[in-house]
């Protein structure tokens, strides 16, 4: 019984390490930017405060700056959102939206 458990454990570890080895890119790859700039969008900052053709700067997933005439930081990935509207939002942690039924 103990030998069978060890064999199953070895198979599981082997499968995981093989899966991880296959996911790693080979050779050179692009660095993922930590800065993002959403430019040219209509940005609703709060009710009654709207910036037409504004820029929203994100760093590591957090809003750093919002304004009408903000320069794009060096090294930031620029997302041109001409004609789009950016709205503030909240994540409802109690919402089942987007959660698979199997969880």
Outline the fold blueprint:
Elements: H1 2-23, E1 35-46, E2 49-59, E3 62-67, E4 77-80, E5 85-86
Parallel strand pairs: 1-4, 1-5
Antiparallel strand pairs: 1-2, 2-3
Describe, in short, the structure shown:
With 103 residues, the protein is an alpha/beta fold. It contains one helix and five strands.
Structural summary, described in words:
The chain has 103 residues and is an alpha/beta fold. 21% of the residues lie in helices and 34% in strands. It contains one helix and five strands; from the N terminus they run αβββββ. It has one helix spanning 2-23; strands at residues 35-46, 49-59, 62-67, 77-80, 85-86. Strands 1, 2, 3, 4 and 5 form a five-stranded mixed beta sheet that branches. A hairpin with a 2-residue loop joins strand 1 and strand 2 (49-59). The protein starts with a helix and ends in a 17-residue tail after the last strand. The model is unreliable at 1-9 (pLDDT under 50).
